[in-house]
């Protein structure tokens, strides 16, 4: 089993944390895992992405050119990465910010209004963790307990943020 | 039998070694003043010196305490490294004008600006002695050197660099004095300044530097007396002697 | 299939792993200057070294950073600096002085694309600089090349030990991919900063002993040659004792792929996959780039028909492989440059081409 994932969106949408939550959960599930950010000059200009590889084998390259799953949080990222999703791959799309048709018929598309759901929860910045919940319920690779632990570590110390993000996770798990 | 009292001897801070410096050179005197100050402050067993690249590269052949070399211009960075891991040692650099004011400008400025609790002895003789008398950043306008054969030209070479005046404005600098060693009175003043600069460090007062105007008869093409006159009449006019800054009180 | 054991694994970037390793190896002073893609390491050290009450300095330049490291080493303390390619060029001055003064220090190069400013993507184009003496003079530096976050940690610890053992600078050679990537890492035990008393050459103040002098200047006739001979004896000893490599299925291989660091991760995946199709392929991964595992590679490649070298450069390690193999007609090369990372499929294709 090898799962190659890209998470992409605007800077500030918590893309890096989304990827790290996945990597942490995979690690705790005894998988081999790599997390690779876009860094330096690429980061300037507002879009951000990170790549996560989860496998029961050793991970060759953390830099991947084709994806089994793409979690896309904004329009520029969709345009950039839509062509690189593997046939039969999964596109998890933030429909709050991206509308319009997806021409590809060989991938499964989940359109979920992450930003709107996050807004209802009281903070649009938790859209990333809702997306994480959706990914979890779709792929069933990680346990909820580990994911919660990951959130506790990621937002370490700030009880309010931790509980908000755990609510976001629960929300994400319910969506699909 | 008359009572005999020993009133002058080699400081413990100096080894018994014949000098390689040219006659009339100021380095020997300044080395000795450092050693005397070290003796008087009782710090010979806790001091670590950093020798420069230049004529004083061989300082460890004379001093009788721990000394390391450094790459050209980098003594303040090396001193920083030593002092940060051994704050109880007394750490000083001994640098010439090429080392400190040309290739090592960044290192001296930033060590001073960080307020490193170190002591810097800056020997300004207006030339590169070790390599054969080339123009230094401190060379005076009109002064002839191996690389300003017709004299330092303002348009081509720019102004003599007053590095001490530059450093004095930095908040990290606590004590900065310019002295000379061309007369016995100036030698005594230099000794007092060096001693104070070490004392400041012992008392953790911060960055202290003494600029010493020194003679290089060989490469300024002057006799020993001519060199003394040159310091008195020219160099000390462009580089006025005295305390440039004292923020230790 | 090797799974990570759960518990007590931490998710860390390669850069952070190097930093944590340094702290755990008892590094007493770190000095560095910002440059991508090693910035996380300097940032990490500013926090961890301060927490531990040890010295952290953001220096004014790479020249100053390596000289601060020189100073800490003079004082008998374990010390490290890090940078990426253009900054490592500046550090060459200090590295030569460390070698000339027989001072231990660890230098980390998180390589990026060059020459010049190049880019900030991963690269292996500093192999020559690292292994052939980037600075002046007849000196060597042990160079360790990790290929994972765990190895970034383990090899950094080894580097401190080797530096102290042989009194010389040691380089950890990683790249932007290894530095930026997060992987699970197991932490080694915490060591205290080494006491200068353990280093009978260190400058500590001449209390109750004769003064010590640290220098690389030898002006008397024959003196410097004598010193160089001493250095060379040390290097010979290192070549005998410290060679490290990994050989995977090389003994009966028809084709041996040679790669290190990031490139070896990808090459390994190709080799493992193609071996499933009954292809006789091996992977040879030098871990010490100097001393290069020349003898063992020579032995292993004797029976092989082909040798494929894969690098993220125009072919720098290739020269050492050619010297070891001694038969250029066997050797093929596949390289990506300027920040290009070879995809597994590209290496698969090159391997199959060699086997045709």
Any overview of this molecule?
The complex is a heterotrimer of chains A (about 180), B (about 250) and C (about 350). Chain A contains six helices and six strands. Chain A has helices at about 15-30, 75-80, 115-120, 125-140, 145-155, 160-175; strands at about 1-10, 30-35, 45-55, 65-70, 85-95, 110. In chain A, strands 2-3-1-4-5-6 form a six-stranded mixed β-sheet, with helices on both faces. In chain A, α2 links the parallel β4 and β5 (about 85-95). In chain A, α5 (about 145-155) runs antiparallel to α6. Chain A starts with a strand and ends with a helix. In chain B, about 35% of the residues lie in helices and about 20% in strands. Chain B has nine helices and nine strands. Chain B has a seven-stranded mixed β-sheet with strand order 2-1-3-4-8-7-9, with helices on both faces. Chain B has a two-stranded antiparallel sheet with strand order 5-6. The radius of gyration of chain B is 17 Å and the shape is globular. The N and C termini of chain B lie far apart (about 50 Å). The model of chain B has no long low-confidence stretch (mean pLDDT about 95). With about 350 residues, chain C is of the alpha/beta class. Chain C has two domains: about 10-195 and about 230-240, Thiamin diphosphate (ThDP)-binding fold, Pyr/PP domains (Rossmann fold, 3-Layer(aba) Sandwich), CATH 3.40.50; about 245-355, Rossmann fold (3-Layer(aba) Sandwich). In chain C, about 40% of the residues lie in helices and about 20% in strands. In chain C, the strands form three sheets. Chain C has a seven-stranded mixed β-sheet with strand order 3-2-4-5-7-6-13, sandwiched between helices. A five-stranded mixed β-sheet of chain C has the order 10-12-11-14-15, with helices on both faces. In chain C, strands 1-8 form a two-stranded antiparallel ribbon. The model of chain C is unreliable at about 1-5 (pLDDT under 50). The interface of A and C includes residues 24, 30, 59 and 60 of A.
């Amino acid at each position: 089993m090898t799962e190659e994932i890209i998470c992409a969106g605007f800077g500030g949408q918590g893309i890096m944390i989304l990827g790290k939550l996945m990597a942490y959960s995979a690690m705790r599930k005894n998988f081999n895992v790599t997390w690779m950010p876009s860094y330096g000059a690429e980061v300037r200009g507002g879009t951000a992405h990170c790549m996560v590889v989860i496998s029961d084998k050793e991970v060759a390259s953390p830099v991947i050119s084709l994806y089994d799953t793409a979690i896309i949080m904004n329009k520029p990222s969709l345009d950039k990465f839509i062509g690189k999703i593997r046939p039969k791959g999964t596109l998890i799309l933030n429909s709050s910010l991206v509308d319009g048709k997806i021409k590809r018929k060989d991938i499964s598309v989940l359109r979920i209004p992450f930003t709107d759901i996050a807004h209802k929860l009281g903070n649009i910045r938790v859209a990333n963790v809702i997306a994480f919940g959706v990914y979890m319920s779709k792929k069933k690779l990680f346990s909820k307990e580990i994911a919660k632990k990951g959130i506790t570590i990621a937002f370490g110390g700030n009880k309010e943020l931790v509980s908000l993000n755990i609510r976001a996770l629960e929300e994400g798990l319910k969506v699909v | 039998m008359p009572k005999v009292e020993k009133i002058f001897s080699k400081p413990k801070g100096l080894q018994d070694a014949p000098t390689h410096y040219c006659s009339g050179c100021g380095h020997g005197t300044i080395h000795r003043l450092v050693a005397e100050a070290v003796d008087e402050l009782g710090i010979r067993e806790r001091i670590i010196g950093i020798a420069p690249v230049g004529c004083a590269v061989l300082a460890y052949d004379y001093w009788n305490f721990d000394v390391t070399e450094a790459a050209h211009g980098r003594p303040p960075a090396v001193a920083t490294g030593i002092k940060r891991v051994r704050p109880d040692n007394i750490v000083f650099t001994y640098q010439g004008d090429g080392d400190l004011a040309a290739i090592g400008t960044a290192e001296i400025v930033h060590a001073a600006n960080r307020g490193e609790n170190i002591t810097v002895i800056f020997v300004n003789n207006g030339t590169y002695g070790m390599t054969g008398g080339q123009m230094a950043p401190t060379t005076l306008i009109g002064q002839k050197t191996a690389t300003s054969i017709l004299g330092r030209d303002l348009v081509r070479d720019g102004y003599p660099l007053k590095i001490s005046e530059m450093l004095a404005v930095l908040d990290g600098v606590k004590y900065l004095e310019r002295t000379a060693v061309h007369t016995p009175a100036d030698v005594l003043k230099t000794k007092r300044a060096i001693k104070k600069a070490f004392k400041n460090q012992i008392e953790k007062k911060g960055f202290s530097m003494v600029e010493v105007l020194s003679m290089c008869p060989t490469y300024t093409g002057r006799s020993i007396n001519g060199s003394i006159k040159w310091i008195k009449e020219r160099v000390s006019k462009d580089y006025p002697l005295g305390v440039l800054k004292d923020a230790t009180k | 299939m090797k799974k990570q054991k759960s518990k007590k694994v931490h998710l860390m970037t390669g850069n952070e792993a190097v930093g944590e390793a340094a702290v755990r190896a008892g590094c007493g002073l770190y000095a560095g200057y910002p440059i991508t893609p090693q910035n996380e390491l300097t940032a990490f050290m500013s926090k961890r070294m301060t927490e531990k009450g040890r010295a952290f300095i953001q220096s004014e330049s790479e020249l100053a950073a390596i000289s601060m490291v020189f100073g800490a080493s003079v004082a008998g303390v374990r010390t490290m600096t890090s940078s990426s390619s253009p900054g490592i060029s500046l550090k060459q001055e200090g590295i030569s002085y460390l070698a000339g003064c027989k001072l231990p220090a660890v230098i980390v190069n998180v390589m990026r694309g060059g020459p010049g400013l190049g880019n900030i993507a991963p690269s292996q184009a500093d192999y020559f600089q690292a292994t052939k003496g980037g600075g002046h003079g007849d000196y060597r530096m042990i160079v360790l090349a990790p290929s994972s976050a765990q190895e970034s940690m383990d090899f950094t610890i080894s580097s401190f030990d080797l530096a102290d053992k042989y009194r010389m600078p040691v380089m950890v050679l990683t790249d932007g991919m290894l530095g930026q990537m997060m992987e699970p890492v197991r932490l080694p035990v915490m060591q205290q900063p080494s006491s200068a008393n353990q280093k009978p050459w260190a400058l500590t103040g001449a209390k109750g002993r004769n003064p010590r002098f640290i220098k690389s200047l030898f002006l008397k006739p024959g003196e410097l040659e004598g010193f160089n001979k001493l250095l060379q004896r040390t290097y010979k000893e290192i070549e005998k004792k410290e060679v490290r490599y990994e050989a995977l299925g090389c003994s009966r291989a028809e084709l041996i792929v040679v790669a290190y660091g990031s490139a070896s991760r990808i090459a390994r995946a190709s080799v493992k996959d193609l071996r499933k199709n009954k292809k006789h392929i091996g992977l040879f991964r030098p871990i010490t780039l100097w001393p290069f595992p020349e003898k063992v590679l020579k032995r292993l490649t004797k029976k092989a028909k082909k040798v494929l070298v894969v690098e993220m450069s125009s072919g720098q390690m290739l020269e050492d492989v050619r010297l070891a193999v001694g038969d250029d007609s066997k050797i093929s090369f596949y390289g990506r440059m300027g920040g290009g990372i070879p995809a597994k499929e590209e290496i698969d294709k090159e391997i199959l081409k060699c086997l045709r």
